[in-house]
Design goal:
With about 230 residues, this protein is an alpha/beta fold. The protein has a 5-stranded mixed β-sheet. α5 crosses α6 and α8 packs antiparallel against α10. The N and C termini lie far apart (about 55 Å). The chain binds zinc ion.
Length: about 230
């Protein structure tokens, strides 16, 4: 019932104001978040709540399966506004285990229009299939959730917005995190990119944590981009 939400809202606004009388007056004047969050639209992963941040502290962009596509003007405009106008210092790409979008891409399940969007996640799966196919099904999904985050961190870092920011000497770092629905905890995937020079190296190392099948001695031509053959390590 919508009016329940409006009632909740009145209670929340009153409580906020009681705790901090200047809260809304300050926020109405300007926002100056230090953080940007790029996450999944899943209702169980609310950026502010799970990071303990108030309104005004994190600039948020969410879509199905936290994908950043180089031609997505919605995501790119949001990232540009965050970097060039708000001057955020940290951008977090946050996936989550148990992501229905990633699961659909992993299993090739048809869900509707989103199939076309999830094709980007499916591409991640194909690119790294030799690191995925030998894992048990449940582990494949969790691993693809992580790989998808790493790929999207790369996409943010390679966007003209971040490349230009770093060329200007602006301090802004892109991080990759995964959220656990079962324990409510965020995990840092340790793929932080904070200037153009780090992108290739971070990317090259990022996937080595997921071993390829043992009998695969060489590289996989599908695993292009910055991933370097690591002899099935
Ligand atoms: Zn999701």
């Amino acid at each position: 019932m919508p009016h329940r939400l409006l009632g909740n809202n009145r209670d929340w606004a009153a409580a906020k104001k009681a705790a901090d009388p200047g809260f809304f007056t300050r926020l109405a004047q300007q926002q100056s978040p230090r953080y940007m969050w790029i996450g999944c639209a899943d209702s169980r992963v609310p950026a502010n709540e799970i990071t303990g941040l108030d309104p005004g502290e994190v600039f948020v962009h969410r879509n199905v399966a936290n994908v950043v596509v180089h031609s997505d003007l919605n995501a790119l405009s949001t990232i540009q506004f965050a970097v060039e106008h708000l001057k955020v210092e940290h951008i977090f790409v946050v996936g989550h285990y148990g992501c229905a979008g990633v699961r659909a891409a992993m299993r090739g399940v048809r869900v509707g229009l989103a199939d076309n969007w999830l094709r980007h996640v499916h591409d991640v799966r194909l690119r790294h299939r030799k690191r995925l196919d030998h894992l048990p099904p449940e582990q494949q999904e969790d691993t693809l959730c992580e790989m998808n985050v790493i790929e999207q961190v790369g996409n943010v870092a390679l966007s003209t917005v971040l490349q230009d920011a770093w060329a200007r000497g602006q301090k802004v770092a892109v991080h990759g995190w995964v959220y656990g629905l079962r324990d409510g905890l965020l995990k840092d995937l340790d793929v932080t990119m904070d200037d153009s020079a780090t992108v290739v190296q971070v990317f090259a190392n990022a996937f080595k944590r997921y071993p390829r099948v043992a009998d695969d001695a060489g590289g996989d031509p599908a695993e292009e981009r910055f991933d370097t053959p690591d002899g099935g390590a």
